[in-house]
């Protein structure tokens, strides 16, 4: 029963968000804030991914340091 409620709430949120995106307007300032926050989150994930794979033997800097 809980799974059904969660699925219904998430699905409803997605449909309402899509309808709001198509038919609703946000002030430019709010849209800019949302875009900036999304870019910040994406950038922090990319930085984390880069830091977590830096010890990979296929890393370009590791290969350069091994050649010298």
Taken together, the total number of domains comes to: 1
The topology string of helices and strands comes to HHH
The helix/strand class is: mainly alpha
Instruction: Report strand %.
Output: under 5%
Write down the Rg.
Answer: 21 Å
Distance between the termini: 62 Å
Q: How many β strands by DSSP?
A: 0
- Per the principal axes of the C-alpha atoms, what is the gross shape? flat
Characterization of this structure:
The chain is mainly alpha-helical. The protein has one domain. It has 3 helices and no strands. It is flat.
Topology of this structure?
Elements: H1 2-23, H2 28-52, H3 60-67
Structure described in brief:
With 68 residues, the chain is mostly helical. It has helices at 2-23, 28-52, 60-67.
Which keywords apply here?
68 residues; 0% strand; mainly alpha
């Amino acid at each position: 029963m809980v799974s059904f409620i969660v699925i219904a709430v998430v699905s409803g949120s997605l449909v309402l968000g899509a309808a709001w995106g198509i038919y609703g307007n946000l002030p430019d300032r709010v849209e800019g804030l949302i875009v900036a926050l999304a870019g910040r989150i994406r950038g922090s994930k990319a930085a984390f991914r880069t830091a977590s794979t830096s010890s990979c033997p296929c890393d370009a800097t590791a290969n350069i340091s091994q050649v010298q």
